[in-house]
Write a structure and sequence with these properties.
Strand order of the largest sheet: 1-2-3-4-5-6-7-8
Order of helices and strands: HEHHHHEHHHEHEHEHEHEHHEHHHH
Helix content: 40-55%
Number of helices: 18
Distance between the termini: 29 Å
Structural class: alpha/beta
CATH class: Alpha Beta
Number of domains: 1
Number of strands: 8
Radius of gyration: 20 Å
CATH architecture: Alpha-Beta Barrel
Bound molecules: adenine, zinc ion
Shape: globular
CATH topology: TIM Barrel
Length: 350
């Protein structure tokens, strides 16, 4: 039996679109500085005349054996020394968007840490101009819509956070929300009551890391004192049944980061991650990559890893993807949200 096969150098759009690709998703917990890949760090260092204290990429990667959040943050901040120019920030964000697009990310809400740059003499304008130029081109270059979230470092003072918000004022048209990150324990959300109130008065949305290493009480503070609309991580809510009940009732999104939790030892192994129970409890969980260059995977790898380690089925994966778009700051573009949600519902898992 013979078949006539037409061979073309490029697969036709119809042929490629019938192959089940990755589930469409939004990434809501991604530190752009955490996408700095070892090769990129060496390339940026070379062109900026900086010598890294590692002989090569292998030696740098060998340092990615973290014991906890602080041991990661020490390296994360040190490596940022290579980020100096607007071009560096543009290329960093553009490379992330290219990679995320391949893994089915349709919408990305991206954190950045201005204080980690201004403290090294890099002006906030250099950071924001570079990042926002890449993000603005994200749709055309990579088919990804974006939002930018300015994070305050919680191990710095409340005054420094207020000064950072002031420095960001000329650029607020590029910024959707404020967040709170860095070393959690000993730096409760209430320390940042004033700056979050000021951000709200400027029309910014609010999120905060809470319950990654810190106790469930920090999640409660983030909600009640800061008035956040999403909790970043929120992993330790499972220790407090009344809090879980509240988060379910309020449909509060949690931006979980499973591979990060393993690398920073919040859980022993991925098989121990509480995600399946969280979904069964009705929590509005999402899956994200946090700092993918350091933790072994981008959004797609996080989805694949939880699917495999926790035996998640298609409906659980679809729920995670649906939640990501429901929790996105797309209130100014509901048509787009509806389009993304329709894509999730019609997705065929391979
Ligand atoms: N900054 C970058 N990644 C972080 C994380 N996982 N927790 C707190 N701050 C961070
Ligand atoms: Zn984070």
């Amino acid at each position: 039996m013979s078949h006539t096969v037409s061979v073309s150098p490029h697969p036709s759009p119809t042929a490629s679109s019938t192959a089940p690709g990755p589930v469409p998703k939004a990434e809501l917990h991604l530190h752009i500085e955490g996408t700095l890949e070892p090769a990129q760090a060496f390339a940026f260092a070379a062109r900026n005349g900086i010598t890294l204290p590692y002989a090569d990429e292998a030696e740098l990667t060998a340092a990615y054996a973290f014991e906890d959040l602080q041991s990661f943050l020490d390296l994360y901040y040190a490596l940022m020394a290579v980020l100096r120019t607007e071009r560096d920030f543009f290329e960093l964000a553009d490379a992330y968007l290219a990679r995320a697009a391949e893994q089915g990310v349709r919408h990305a809400e991206i954190f950045f840490d201005p204080q980690a740059h201004t403290c090294r003499g890099v002006p906030i304008g250099t950071v924001i101009e570079g990042l926002s130029r890449a993000l603005a081109a994200g749709e055309e270059r990579h088919g990804i819509s974006t939002r930018l979230i300015l994070c305050f470092l919680r191990d710095q003072s409340a005054e420094s956070a207020l000064q950072t918000l002031e420095e960001a004022r000329p650029y607020l048209d590029r910024i959707t929300a404020v967040g709170l990150d860095s070393a959690e324990v000993g730096h409760p959300p209430s320390k940042f009551r004033e700056v979050f109130a000021a951000a709200e008065a400027l029309g910014l949305r609010k999120v905060a890391h809470a319950g990654e290493e810190g106790p469930p009480a920090y999640i409660v503070e983030a909600l009640d004192v800061l008035g956040v609309e999403r909790i970043d991580h929120g992993l330790r809510c499972v220790e407090d049944p009344a809090l879980v009940e509240r988060l379910v009732r309020e449909r509060m999104p949690l931006t979980l980061c499973p591979l990060s939790n393993v690398r920073l030892r919040a859980v022993d192994t991925l098989a121990d991650h509480p995600l399946p129970g969280m979904l069964r409890a009705g929590l509005m969980a999402t899956v994200n990559s946090d700092d993918p260059a350091y933790f072994g995977g981008y959004a797609g790898e996080n989805f694949d890893a939880v699917r495999d380690a926790l035996a998640l089925g298609e409906e659980e994966l679809r729920t995670l993807a649906r939640n990501s778009f429901l929790a996105a700051f797309l209130d100014d573009d509901e048509e787009r949200r509806a389009r993304y949600l329709a894509e999730v519902e019609s997705h065929t898992f391979g």
